[in-house]
Design a protein that fits this description.
CATH topology of the largest domain: 434 Repressor (Amino-terminal Domain)
Order of helices and strands: HHHHHHHH
Shape: elongated
CATH superfamily of the largest domain: lambda repressor-like DNA-binding domains
Strand content: under 5%
Structural class: mainly alpha
Helix content: 55-70%
Distance between the termini: 24 Å
Number of domains: 2
Number of strands: 0
CATH class of the largest domain: Mainly Alpha
Radius of gyration: 17 Å
CATH architecture of the largest domain: Orthogonal Bundle
Length: 125
């Protein structure tokens, strides 16, 4: 996994791995091919419409891969300079999540401490 990879580069690499042409892929996800090309090239921001994102996820066949979907949403959020959509949904559904995030920020936890907390919640020792 490339930590410096951009959302468009990521989409392009997955599309090419699946041997899907740009025009075919764009038609499948209901985006004009020229616009889709600009998304992959980084000239346009990625779509924000959840239905389009769902079509992209399905077309890339990553719906059942939680790790790949998380990467998709992380890079998508980074491209928009926003909280990833899947995380935003979790925040909306729980009053405790904003409190947890503020506590982490207020305590100035290190990256390692945050990873340890995540592993604790996941049940990993």
């Amino acid at each position: 996994m490339n930590d410096c990879q951009k959302f468009g580069e990521y989409l392009r690499s997955l599309r090419l791995e699946r041997r899907i042409g740009l025009r075919e892929f764009a038609r499948n996800v209901d985006i004009l091919p020229s616009n889709y090309h600009h998304i992959e090239a980084g000239f346009h921001k990625p779509p924000q419409d959840e239905a389009k994102l769902t079509r992209i996820i399905l077309a890339l066949d990553i719906a059942g891969d939680e790790k790949e979907k998380a990467r998709f949403f992380d890079l998508h959020g980074k491209a928009l300079q926003a909280v990833p959509l899947d995380v935003a949904q979790v925040i909306k559904e729980s009053d405790a999540i904003p409190m947890l995030l503020r506590t982490i920020d207020n305590r100035k936890l290190s990256e390692k401490e945050i990873c340890d907390l995540v592993n604790y919640v996941r049940g990993i020792k």
